[in-house]
From TrEMBL:
Protein name per the record: FecR protein domain-containing protein
Pfam families xref list: FecR
Domain of life: Bacteria
Residues in FecR protein domain copies: 78-177
PANTHER family linked to this entry: FECR PROTEIN DOMAIN-CONTAINING PROTEIN, LIPL45-RELATED LIPOPROTEIN-RELATED
Source organism of this protein record: SAR86 cluster bacterium
């Protein structure tokens, strides 16, 4: 009789233990998955929206379209689109700033910032106009593609405007940049002969001392 009661108590205690352990296991597993997903999301985070005027849209990596508002996340693989009479300002994870003007489109190909040798920025201005103050990522680790040309920076405030299908203009206001395509390269800004340049597909970039009319002003 005593043995039976002892066995019953043991089974009851085991059942209580199981009832406590299973929820704890579920909670810990859920928390683990949450932290993994959070870490993954942080790795893909390129920046955030700090200001908007008018209608702004982001096309996510999976092809979904979403409206953009202040504090919206911008991730690697996203394409930001502005429309007539609209503009957006973005702050990236390395403290870089971009003002994307109306009727423009910017694709975030890559944006990795950990303060290490693996840091990398790759942006693609599909159309329109932007002005940017670059962040911590500089030199060959930074790349903006415009009309087939590649722009790298040396700590810079510069502007790019695509005009039509073949023509683009670049202007540097602080610091310096290097523009490279298959026909050569041109330096703009500090230590260079020019502050402005015109870019055409399949042509060498041409430096200029005069600001093109498509640059300057506000978005």
């Amino acid at each position: 009789m005593k043995y039976w009661r002892s066995s019953s108590v043991f089974k009851h205690a085991k059942l209580i233990t199981m009832n406590i352990s299973i929820p704890k296991f579920i909670i810990l597993t859920t928390l683990g998955c949450f932290f993994i997903l959070s870490s993954s999301a942080q790795l893909n985070l390129a920046g955030r929206v700090v200001a908007t005027i008018g209608q702004i849209e982001v096309v996510r990596f999976d092809g979904t379209h979403q409206a953009v508002i202040r504090r919206s996340d911008i991730n690697v693989g996203d394409t930001i689109k502005t429309f007539s009479d609209s503009m957006v300002q973005l702050r990236f994870v390395d403290s870089g700033l971009v003002s994307l003007c109306s009727d423009s489109e910017l694709k975030i190909v890559q944006y990795q910032y950990q303060g290490a040798n693996s840091d990398r920025v790759e942006l693609y201005l599909v159309k329109g106009k932007l002005r940017t103050i670059t962040g911590e990522i500089k030199g060959e680790a930074y790349l903006l593609v415009v009309n087939g040309a590649r722009i790298s920076n040396r700590g810079t405030d510069y502007e790019v405007a695509i005009v039509g299908d073949e023509q683009a203009y670049v202007g540097v206001y602080t610091g310096g940049i290097t523009i490279t395509n298959e026909l050569g390269e041109v330096n703009l800004g500090i230590g260079a002969d020019y502050d402005f340049a015109s870019l055409r597909k399949n042509f060498a970039s041409v430096g200029s001392l005069l600001q093109p009319p498509d640059l300057g002003g506000t978005c």
